[in-house]
Specification:
homodimer, 301 residues, alpha+beta, 7-stranded mixed sheet, 4-stranded antiparallel sheet, 34% helix
Chain lengths: 301, 301
């Protein structure tokens, strides 16, 4: 699939344990023109499946509406149990700009899909992150607080009236959260020490919540098998806090303890731009453009 | 154009001054299925044009045969003058593996096209670099020595019998050289000094010919306008001598003179792999694969 414009969506649905239901859901959203299912990660403890989709704006809209339709039929939150907080059968569906797409286009698409979901299925819709209508709705966790069980009351409060749809939860589906956000890059840096304190201190130094970089979440992790520690990071906006900057900060902080970076690990996917930016940075290039990459040049009109 | 396998070819033709002839040549090789003309660089002093093509194996074969056909019609080396050494109307045509293609496939294609050119047009063909039949024919300059004017005699020597075609030059076309080589990356590193001696010394240290890295050609260049010097490099096998290693060696050598790298410049195109390798190296990734790049994942079957 070679699209000029690419949007990603990573809907989280409240089902992972019933194989047959999951298979039927995937069958329904499969094969829609200009879309692809990139990855499906069911988590049994959470009873929640993370689905990665990508495609054109029109394709994704069709695919997500189909997902809402089939999940409405197949998932009843009154029967649902799992460790992860959730407020709806399709709990959350972010839209993510990947290639030649602006965040504004993703916000518009989020609102377009949200309005359609509300109208067609009578499901209350909340908009979050870049699509949020108020500051309090920017944060997903904040919207979801109370979960399915608490939303019956929460939704009646004026400040929690949904952005689209009725001010009462759908009896079996609950509510849903749709929005636009940057792609998330999960990047772990391994250190040449078994001292978890050092990993924790570095994590604390680089993460936003304790004074570090604006778009970094981080924690120290022990890798028992290798007897080393790791700074495990989520980079929530690689354009504003690039991978290389976060890694160099970890390296710098580690040096303070006489510890070296011994390796690193990208978990899942990364936009090409984040890789280009990294090469550009370290090679100190003055005027590099992605169209200088032969494969990209070949794909241009 | 989204091909699974990509080969590049950079034929050099002995014409740059006659616009109408050049236009007609380009018209003839344009629009061939599964090929693209990436770039056309005429050099008036050399009276020579460098054409960058890319495509599938079959597409490129059709395109190059068409190029030989039209150049045979339009270019007469008996009338040709220019500063650059040349022995044929299509002087040289390398085949270059870019994506999911081995060097062996490019060698096979070079021989296939060479044999066809000899048979169809009665042009003597020499194979060079990875396609060379003897060590002496590996080097293009070595084959071309004597040029068009000298080849009338050179071709009669048993050691210079062509790999394909008659042992006499084509009266108007001359001979041609076809082969397989790695993509060439032209990469310049700018230094925070105006002392050309320093650039020259660093160039000498990093280049193969004077003891440096196996696949680096380099020279010092003065950038008059910016009043700084540059180490200008050609990297002739980025898999064996990667960009980052050459750049880090320049950096290291520059440090010996107390000079910093202030920037760098990629001239022309680069294969995506060379960029991935760079990010991989500096981020010290343990198990990165190009299919972790979202755009690549999307293009897989």
């Amino acid at each position: 699939m070679n699209l000029t414009k690419i949007i990603e969506s990573v809907p989280n649905i409240s089902e992972a344990r019933r194989d047959d239901v999951l298979a039927e859901i995937l069958k329904e959203i499969h094969g829609i023109p200009d879309t692809r299912i990139l990855d499906v990660k069911p988590d049994l403890d959470h009873n929640r499946t993370v689905i990665s989709l990508a495609g054109s704006s029109e394709g994704l809209k069709t695919q997500l509406l189909k997902l809402y339709e089939v999940c409405l039929k197949k998932i009843d939150l009154r029967q649902h149990q799992g460790e992860h907080p959730r407020a709806g059968a399709v709990d959350v569906a972010p839209l993510i700009p990947i290639k030649n797409v602006t965040m504004e286009e993703c916000v518009r698409l989020a609102k377009d899909i949200g309005s359609e979901v509300a109208q067609r299925f009578e499901i209350p819709v909340y908009l979050y992150e870049f699509a949020a209508s108020t500051e309090a709705r920017r944060d997903l966790a904040n919207i979801r607080k109370g979960e399915f069980e608490g939303f019956m009351e929460k939704i009646l409060k004026p400040e929690w009236a949904p952005d689209f749809g009725p001010a009462q939860i759908h009896p079996s589906f609950g509510v849903t959260v749709i929005g636009a956000r940057m792609p998330l890059i999960a990047f772990n840096v391994n250190l040449g020490t078994a001292d978890i304190q050092i990993a924790n201190k570095i994590a604390k130094a680089v993460r936003h919540s304790s004074g570090g970089l604006r778009f970094v979440k981080a924690m120290g992790v022990m890798l028992q098998e290798r007897n080393i520690v790791q700074v495990s990071m989520n980079l929530t906006d690689y354009k504003k806090t690039p991978v290389y900057r976060a890694v160099e900060m970890v390296r710098r902080e580690a040096a303070r303890y006489g510890v070296n970076v011994v390796g690193s690990e990208l978990v899942g996917l990364i936009p090409a731009e984040a890789i280009y930016d990294t090469a550009d940075y370290y090679l100190q290039m003055e005027s590099f453009t992605p169209s200088q990459i032969l494969e990209n040049k070949l794909m241009e009109e």
